[in-house]
Amino acid sequence: MAGGEKRDGGLRLTKAEVTVRITLLSLGCFLVLLPVAWTILTSLKTGEQTLEVPPVWIFPPQWKNYLEVLRLVPFQNYALNTAIVVTGVVVGTLLSCSFSAYGFARLRAPGRNVIFGVLMATMMLPSTVTLVPTYIVFNKIGWLNTYLPLIVPAWFGSAFFIFMFRQFYQSIPRELEEAARIDGAGYLRIWWSIFLPLSMPVIATVVVFTFVGTYNDFFGPLIYLTDESKWTISVALSSFGGSPRIGPQLHMLSAATMIAAAPSIIVFLLAQRYYVNGISVAGVNK
Amino acid sequence: MSGLRRREALWCYVFITPAVLGVLLFAIGPMIASFALSFTSYDMLSSPEFVGLKNYSKLVGDTLFRKSLQVTMLYAVVVVPGTLVMGLVVAILLNAKTPAMAFFRSAYYLPSVIGGVAVARVWAMLYNGDHGLFNLLLGLVGIQGPGWLTDEHWAIWALIFMGIWGFGGTMLIYLAGLQSIPNELYEAAAVDGASKLRQHIFITVPMLSNVTFFNLVMGIIGALQVFAEPFVLTNGTGNPNNSTLLLPLYLYRVAFDYLEMGYASAIAWVVFAITLVLTALVFRSLPFWVHTEAGAD
Fold it and tell me: Does residue B292 sit at the A interface (CB-CB below 8 Å)?
């Protein structure tokens, strides 16, 4: 395999080896970030500069392009709509997943493990299979053009996050719970006032994952939100290409793209630790 | 069952109710409904009409479906291994205890947090035939770049490169796997005089085979669900000449442009069947390449 020449299992690298690695990684990093960097550059040019060949690299940045985009399209509207959906999904996912996970982790009942197995199997179910009937039902009960089809399913758990909460709950010492039981606390109280507060690291991971996933979701909002005033940011951004106000102007389109991409990038940069944790759980425990 | 045990069981069912309802309402229920619908003709205006296997026989003769299937297979066959190789190589390079690695890890993962629509927007500008970055760079070395999004032979490759760009998740999973390989293995191999490359081929790759398995299965499932990128790049058309008509896009068109819900369900089930067969093949091949007891899980 290319680039497989130097390693020491993550430890004790010689200075030369570190230098080689950093050089290779810097090169790759430049290539990987180039598309984003180019978009940022383009977003700060004037309309004429975007078409110049060879491209201009040094120019006075046009920060006003960003203000212009916000003026041209009702971004605040899209942001508010997105915030409603994201909040509903994040809160629903947290409550339903931690709630169910407590049952799976701590309480014994016939059939529990079989149900858990079925739940885990749904992780592999492609969403295309369930799409058509789900859409038909939401349509029939009049939920089209509302946020309900996007939010309500999140209140019924999600296999991966239930798995994460369950793993964590299983590691909590039983004594904690037994002490509470002796004090007369019921299962609901134990879940709410012992397990939930203890699981902050998992909560953080679930919030970050759900935020980014919901914020970036395109298919759901596209099919359920037909009215422009209801659009989320991702649907709005997908329409800008054909919009006469923004579409053909590369600097405007770039600025709009960066505004739309910013929230998930910022959340990722602030919460990387939880991100990396979550993904590691996914791969290693499987 | 004692009263205490019964009470515990009762509460267990209370707690797992959201998850059970979720599985029934949003997974198993729709799955069965979609299977039943695939034997009907249904446009959402009149009631569904039973047509037997007609939708499936129509699929066999549907040239657009066949094209879509071909395009999707090409996409998956390149993107899935491409992502695995990129993820593994970068993870190996990152697996060192140097402060700079945290920065690189974030930088390489960054593209994976950007949503499909924004990714497509970013790359559409790079792919632009006249003033996109790629053709400008190719022009510098005297190559006349193709019309990435207008030439039917190149458009799918435009999607493929975009797909591989999202290797960050695979990389992080590999990195976590690498950190669980005992260092002594490498030290012993080094004492025996094995080169670094041989150490990777004979230690790293086998030790990570269970991680590769996970990445492979998830990669296949993911590659068969790509929608936002081709939709945005081609304004929902899958053009030029349907060369970017990945299956989810075709399904979208059949369901929401033509309102052929029965036919769309048949397509969904074929896609599901393909996913199952591919996953089963990977599972069946496990004993041949997955090291340790990981395959039992």
Answer: no
